[in-house]
Amino acid sequence: MTPPKLRIAGLHKSFGTGERRTEVLRDINLDLADNEFVSLVGTSGCGKSTLLSIVAGLQDFDAGDLSIDGAPILQPGLDRGVVFQSYTLLPWLTARQNIEFALKAAGYDRATCRRIALEHLDLVKLSHSADRYPSELSGGMKQRVAIARALSYRPKMLLMDEPFGALDALTRHQMQELLTQIWEEHRLTVLFVTHDVEEAVYLSDRIVVMGIGPGRITQTFNVDIERPRREEVMESPAFMDLQRGVHKAIREGSKRPEMALAG
Ligand SMILES: Nc1ncnc2c1ncn2[C@@H]1O[C@H](COP(=O)(O)OP(=O)(O)OP(=O)(O)O)[C@@H](O)[C@H]1O
User: Fold this and answer.
1) CB 25 near ligand 1, within 6 Å
2) Which atom of ligand 1 has the smallest separation from the CA of 53?
3) Would the pLDDT of 70 be above 70?
4) ipTM, two decimals
5) What is the strand order of the sheet 22-32 is part of?
6) What would be an example GO MF term here (predicted)?
7) Residue 17 in 3-state DSSP?
8) What is the rounded distance in angstroms from the CA atom of residue 153 to the CA atom of residue 39?
9) Within 10 Å of residue 44's Cβ, how many Cβ atoms?
10) Distance 111 CA to ligand 1 centre (A)
């Protein structure tokens, strides 16, 4: 049987040792199919970012299995493109050079780096800003460069942690449209962390709700809303019902299990 694109099985994670040990993730089990778009939502501190950074290979874990296409994840790798909320561009390099920098590290020759960088700037509609420095770009533009960079080395998966969290509502919506378009054209597998339930429903195939005490998966919702989705779909009863359901699950997950039992 073909393994899932991403497998997270029986994953546990704690920070600190001895009396200062805090259990942050308990028994996380989650498989992502090829091309699936999955959002992680949940109250602050439930471990979404920790889980994403473990999948990125940026943090270790205590127990469990983690693999991409059946191969264990041991460290960061070019099979995973990562986009964070804070713009992680190098300020002394232009938009094009930021992408080329990542590609050079992946071993491409100079001409190929340039060609791929320009192709990806075109993909995020930033060809006209290739030679601008990050300080000359708006927040949305910087995030488009970060997305172009993450896609440029053709990762198997895109890991995104609140990528549009710092943007104003209009720019955020434009970025959601752009991501949907890229996802529809390139059929990527995406694991996406967000606080915005509307965004999660709009973008995802599946929404995974995490709760605290310690961080764990409490509920999963399939988003059976036809694609391609356009803005109007947010007004539909199915969309709003789902949004309400996810909000309720987040509220329930924000109570510690003993509180939930007590009512
Ligand atoms: N390096 C660290 N050392 C100790 N504790 C940590 C560390 N990183 C995160 N934590 C703790 O782990 C828990 C989960 O944090 P995490 O940032 O993953 O949550 P989150 O769901 O992404 O939160 P938010 O939605 O606020 O970003 C929190 O209690 C946090 O204090």
Assistant:
1) no
2) 18
3) yes
4) 0.97
5) 22-32, 6-15, 63-68, 71-72
6) ATP binding
7) coil
8) 23
9) 8
10) 41
